[in-house]
Amino acid sequence: MSDFKRLSRSVKGLTVLVTGAASGMGRATALVFAAEGANVAVTDITAEGTQAATIDQKGCRFLPHVVAVYQGGSVSFTNSDPTMHNVHTMPVQVGNRSVDVSEGPGGKPESVQFKDAENMLPVRCNNHPWMNAFVNISPTPFFAVTGTDGSFKIAGLPAGNYTIAFVHEKLGEQDLPVTITAQKSTTITTDFNKK
Ligand SMILES: [Cu+2]
Questions:
Q1: What's the CA-to-centroid distance between 87 and ligand 1, angstroms?
Q2: Distance between Cα 147 and ligand 1 center (Å)
Q3: pLDDT over 50 (residue 1)
Q4: Radius of gyration of the chain from its Cα atoms, rounded to whole angstroms
Q5: Domain count across the chain
Q6: Which of 17, 67, 87, 118 would you label with 138, given CA atoms 20 to 30 Å apart?
Q7: 121 and 75, same domain (yes or no)
Q8: Whose CA is closest to 141, among 69, 37, 90, 39?
């Protein structure tokens, strides 16, 4: 409890988003924050759509090139090619298992769970050095992968002040502040300058 008390001093008057707040630790955390004067927004999203992603190996490429899952989610690696591929994940965070497995034509999908938040975790195929993909593991259920036109949409975020982080495999990361108003869409744009 002493840790909560120390932490909560800095949240007075701020909006705090507590996920998984319907019960247990999440609920206890929300109550402590509220008692200390924070505006508490609680969610208990099951985030089914964000728990899993698939990366196929097709035409000797990983498709899609970038996926994102909620922390604890899994990626299923499949092989639609008539050739032997390999799935080699190279995590930095210790909770994310490194796998290095061969996958034959039409082979059984290889499901890999990611337990730690990590940006741009590389995936390679040892057989074809040009093949690469990236898995992003978000610590919140609020994230998106941009479309080919660069657009994205994140739904269900409670009103409040946030920082949104944009990450690109070659152009790095940009953080932008954003204020979300209740019941309204907010538009945010950023430019990555080519280096
Ligand atoms: Cu390959």
A1: 8
A2: 24
A3: no
A4: 19
A5: 3
A6: 87
A7: yes
A8: 69
